[in-house]
Design brief:
With 269 residues, this protein is an all-alpha fold. It has 11 helices and 2 strands. β1 (34-36) and β2 (39-41) form a beta hairpin. The N and C termini lie far apart (96 Å). The model is unreliable at 7-29 (pLDDT under 50). Bound molecules: heme C (HEC) (2 copies). One heme C (HEC) binds at residues 62-63, 65-67, 85-89, 96-97, 100, 105, 108-109, 113-114, 117, 119-122, 124, 136.
Length: 269
């Protein structure tokens, strides 16, 4: 056997080994760990049919008008519209929903799309519970092919969790503010500490002023004062507690306060 035919046999052997490995990977029985880029994650969990059906019904009611009755999305969904926004994408295998981990998808459903790109994806935080959004996500998952489903499961399991500023801010609030402003910021646990939620005027203050009140305190004629937290809370913690307070406001209040931030002036009474 000459050198060339030996090389040929080695090359064919290599190809057939590669094919065997690939086929073994594709036909891996469900219930096997998912391995991508050398990182193994547990097997893809089985979806609960009842939950998928509930997700399908919620989807038809809340999402189908934009994303299509059959998850097909807008026809030209990758092309930006004249206002800079993107049309609704498909949520099946042909879209890119499956490129994202669960946490990000649930976050988009909760908060809506990115307002800085003029997104038309509405927030559902006041219309659907987290459980209902997760059911809709399970409905999407039931429509993905095996590879899309495995990839999305893998990226969900390996995604670095991004800490939720609102949840962190809620903790700061519970330990430093709730005793005067109330457990849910409803106010008046101690007079005259006002409500910081949607019911009073906290949203009349731009960010710089909220930071200032919390850092330096706020003078009151009453015996109970708003204490200064400079030295007790880091600037980051003050930012987090403000993120929590803002999450309690209505959309209109948040928008109005954001507008105030841009102009950095107090609202005209
Ligand atoms: C008023 C139209 C509209 C409705 C109703 C709507 N969406 Fe959207 N959605 C959009 C648009 C437009 C985008 C693209 C936004 C962008 O990227 O700026 C989008 C994007 C998304 C994305 C991000 C996909 C990705 O890959 O980045 C998810 C997830 C999503 N929508 C889920 C839902 C769900 C679930 C519902 C129903 C509960 C819903 N949408 C209802 C218009 C809508
Ligand atoms: C000892 C009780 C007390 C604690 C603790 C406290 N506050 Fe206050 N806070 C007050 C009082 C009293 C006022 C009203 C001051 C005044 O008369 O304007 C106030 C006012 C405020 C205001 C201004 C609201 C407005 O609409 O004018 C903000 C914002 C605020 N507090 C945030 C916080 C945050 C955030 C914390 C925790 C980091 C906190 N407070 C902890 C007593 C407290």
């Amino acid at each position: 056997m000459n050198r060339q035919s030996r090389l040929w046999i080695v090359a064919r052997l290599t190809v057939s080994i590669m094919l065997t490995v690939l086929l073994a990977r594709c036909s891996a029985p469900s219930g096997a760990p998912v391995v991508i880029n050398g990182t193994a994650v547990p097997p893809v969990p089985t979806l609960d049919p009842g939950r998928v059906a509930r997700g399908a019904a919620l989807y038809a009611q809340h999402c189908a008008a934009c994303h299509g009755a059959n998850l097909e999305g807008a026809s030209d969904w990758k092309k930006r519209l004249p206002d800079g926004s993107l049309p609704p994408p498909p949520h099946g295998s042909s879209g890119h929903t499956w490129h994202h981990p669960d946490a990000l998808l649930l976050n988009i459903m909760t908060q809506g799309g990115d307002p800085t790109s003029n997104s038309k994806m509405p927030p559902f935080r006041d219309k659907l519970t987290q459980e209902e959004m997760a059911a809709i996500l399970d409905f999407f998952k039931s429509r993905w092919g095996k590879q899309e489903r495995e990839f999305q499961w893998w990226i969900t399991m390996t995604a670095i969790p991004t800490p939720d500023p609102v949840a962190l801010g809620r903790e700061v609030f519970a330990s430093h503010c709730a005793r005067c402003h109330g457990a849910q910021a409803e106010g008046h646990a101690v007079e005259p500490a006002p409500a910081l939620d949607a019911s009073e005027h906290a949203w009349h203050h731009p960010d710089w002023q909220l930071h200032q009140f919390i850092r330096d305190g706020k003078y009151s004629l009453s015996p109970v004062q708003m204490p200064a937290f400079a030295g007790k809370l880091s600037d980051e913690q003050v930012g987090l507690v403000i993120a929590y307070i803002k999450s309690l406001w209505t959309d209109e209040q948040r928008l109005s306060q954001e507008d105030m931030n841009q102009r950095s002036v107090l609202p005209t009474p």
